[in-house]
Specification:
Transmembrane segments: 6-25
Order of helices and strands: HEEEHHHEE
Number of domains: 2
Number of strands: 5
Shape: elongated
Distance between the termini: 69 Å
Structural class: alpha+beta
Keywords: Membrane, Transmembrane, Transmembrane helix
Largest sheet: 5 strands, antiparallel
Number of helices: 4
Oligomer: single chain
Strand content: 15-25%
Radius of gyration: 25 Å
Length: 163
């Protein structure tokens, strides 16, 4: 490239970046974000923060244990866990419908997944668990109160028979 073409390219790119910066300041940042990634917002109503929390409980014949989802699914990135647990709840709800038709492949994948969960629980707690229950809660908490536990209300629940 010649010197003149490099200078022209530099001026064009510089002008483009200045126009882009002015656009971001005047309006909003377009998607996909040019300068910074978009961050999620926690809904806040009347001083309370509202969020969804999942609880996973494994049951044996006379015993139960609350399992942290990130321990049970340690090879899955943490930010995928809410979607995974929500899909498991949804799947159990759909399967319980009287006219549910499930393909053989999906059924086999689900059976393999149940075996994975049972084996993972056996590794974590050195015990054979028969059932897994996933509870989905809506939690409201006041962040201004340091000792605020919050109010939990059950939204959905699903049980999975492992054996």
């Amino acid at each position: 490239m010649r010197r003149n073409s490099i200078r022209i390219l530099f001026v064009v790119v510089s002008v483009f970046l200045v126009i882009q910066l002015m656009y971001i300041w005047k309006f909003s940042e377009p998607y996909p974000a040019i300068r910074f990634p978009g961050f999620g917002k926690i809904p806040q109503v009347g001083g309370e923060v509202s969020f969804t929390k999942y609880e996973v409980v494994a049951y044996a014949s006379q015993d139960s244990v609350t399992v942290k989802p990130e321990e049970l699914f340690d090879n899955i990135p943490k930010h995928y866990l809410p979607n995974l647990l929500n899909n498991l709840i949804k799947k159990r709800t759909e399967d319980s419908q009287p006219n549910a038709t499930i393909s053989t492949k999906k059924r086999q994948d689900y059976e393999d997944f149940k075996i994975y969960i049972a084996n993972r629980l056996n590794i974590l707690y050195n015990k054979k668990y028969d059932k897994l229950v996933i509870n989905k809660f809506d939690v409201k908490r006041n962040p201004e109160l340091s000792d605020s536990v919050g109010r939990k209300s059950l939204i959905e629940t699903a049980g999975i028979i492992l054996h």
